Amino acid sequence: MDISSLKVVLLVEAQGSLAGAARVLGVDPSSISRIVSSVESELGVRLFQRTTRRLVATDEGRTYLQRLAPLLEEIDVAREEATGKRSQPNGVLRLTASTAFSTEVIVPHLAEFRTRYPDIAIDLISHDANLDLVENQIDLAIRLAPVPKGDLISTRLMTTAYRVVASPAYLKRHPVGGAPSDVAGHDCLRFALPDFQDRWLYKKGSGEPKAVSVGGGLLFSNALSIRKAAVSGIGVALLADWMVREDLSTERLVDLFPDYQWAATEFDTAAWALYPSRAYLPQKVRVMIDYLRKVLS
After folding, report:
1. Is the pTM of this model over 0.85?
2. Rounded alpha-carbon distances, angstroms, from residue 201 to 88, 180, 212, 229, 274
3. Chain-wide mean pLDDT for the chain?
4. Under DSSP, is residue 167 helix (H, G, I), strand (E, B) or coil?
């Protein structure tokens, strides 16, 4: 069983179909099918099962491929270092993140990244939906969440936290008490996601989490709009720390409960870099992940 065949099998998993892998390699799908069958025959294990739309790894296949991917990546890196053939990263990098994270965090770093890697063009897709990476031919996604689940490979870029904030103008008109439960009586700026709309969670230190019911006349589909509304003095907002750091330092917003931790669903959240597979991971993706991890950590 040669390394090139194993890489093809990993590519099939990443693309979700024989046809997808064939397009990447510029060959006929039947040749990809023969390679997969040959590997399965030699292993004595069925790696994939077909659904109506795509190939899905079996439980045995998933276990095998997860162990295989990092080994092949290390072989490639070792070969490049030994032969001195590691080329300058190049090509178009399709990167997706939420509108707010793209605007506030990624865009400010693009100039330096492009200076370091001028041969990499960035196609930044700002979208608040979690786009399918394979279907949309996306190289890399940045997701804000607890530990990601599923088949995508994930790398933690930075830990995130949430703060409850309001503008000085709002607080002058509607003072907020010192207890987190006092938020319930205020006009809250709510995010149009099920877990964000009706309650916010809080805790102090290692104490047990508690929930406070929130309401208000404004519902937003975009975190940037919530931040703008909070700065304008419309109400109280639950926002990520990376969104309000500058507003807090300039006193456009006030952190109402600095001694408490806040969350919408879970307290242990982070920004994660996700990509379909380690197999055939282009240098352009690898250097972007390394760069973001360095500048955001």
Report:
1. no
2. 47, 9, 6, 21, 27
3. 88
4. coil
